[in-house]
Description:
Helix 1 (2-15) packs antiparallel against helix 2. The relative contact order is 0.18. The chain has one domain (2-192): Sandwich (Immunoglobulin-like), CATH 2.60.40. A hairpin with a 2-residue loop joins strand 1 and strand 2 (47-48). The strands form 2 sheets. Strands 1, 2, 3, 4, 5, 6, 7, 10, 11 and 12 form a 10-stranded antiparallel beta sheet that branches. Strands 8-9 form a two-stranded antiparallel ribbon. It has 5 helices and 12 strands. The chain is α+β, with helices and mostly antiparallel strands. Helices cover 27% and strands 42% of the residues.
Amino acid sequence: xxxxxxxxxxxxxxxxxxxxxxxxxxxxxxxxxxxxxxxxxxxxxxxxxxxxxxxxxxxxxxxxxxxxxxxxxxxxxxxxxxxxxxxxxxxxxxxxxxxxxxxxxxxxxxxxxxxxxxxxxxxxxxxxxxxxxxxxxxxxxxxxxxxxxxxxxxxxxxxxxxxxxxxxxxxxxxxxxxxxxxxxxxxxxxxxxxxxxxxxxxxxx
Length: 205
């Protein structure tokens, strides 16, 4: 929380001399609540994962070998459409914020697994934002070495056809456009935590 507050103050100070309105927009978005509402049309190196989960079809041996080779050669690519909800605390007027880059991080049962960067402008507004992207995927590292533990857990969950939402955490680190240059958030922001387990009466616990 302290790091985010420093980030907010830094962004606000850099634009105060240029545009009071933009400073207010930046402050509003850095204090907003973010939640991932869903991810659709997920394709990993062209393989439609959403279709596989719905039809309960496992990856073929050729597809498994292809993905393993892509991981080894650091050429894994994911495309999808992300539904990101932004809840501004100040909703007295229409606001927008331009991101020039968005780093993301996926954790499985608390273990860092995959990371990547969306390198294109993204304009965020209050409410639901639809963000299509196509980005390289990399394994996170541990002491400079690829960390296969998180990826192994993710593959196991998919292979068991389990609801991975109960096991994954999704985080983002935005780079914000300002009149004096781009400024990156000093820390990741959690936008999705492991889903609560549904009980028989339709409520959550």
